Amino acid sequence: MEDCIFCKIIRGEIPCFKIYEDDSVLAFADINPISDGHTLIIPKRHAQNIWEIPEQDLMAIHRASKKIASAIKRALNPAGIVVLQLNGRGVNQVVMHYHLHLMPRAQDGPELPVSCWELKKGDMDRIKEISEKISSEIS
Predict the structure, then answer these.
(1) Which end of the chain has fewer CB atoms surrounding its CB within 10 Å, N or C?
(2) 99 flagged as catalytic
(3) Catalytic residue among 38, 46, 62, 99
(4) Per-residue confidence band for 115, with pLDDT thresholds at 50, 70 and 90
């Protein structure tokens, strides 16, 4: 897409701190990092979200995420890593080009805002009802 910032990065029109690249994906440092080592992995073929991305591109992103997460572990020795992917403006997807975040948490570093929330016991009947509704739509 012409106006997509990630497509411009892929085309070389906007610079990035490249971490990994292959025929299907590009990974680069997030310039607004939540933590040191915050990396974005994007498909080279434009797709807005999980509903649009071709299966082969999705698989390529996750194969690359394994390589990159392993490199982050060796390079930074984090306490853990958040793997996050948002779909749609309603969940704060800002760039409408599918992207996967890898966000390492440093040893003794602060909690990452995306990995720390209060656990609340769910309504088991409602959970069952919704699970059955979703399951029935899988083809």
Answers:
(1) C
(2) yes
(3) 99
(4) confident
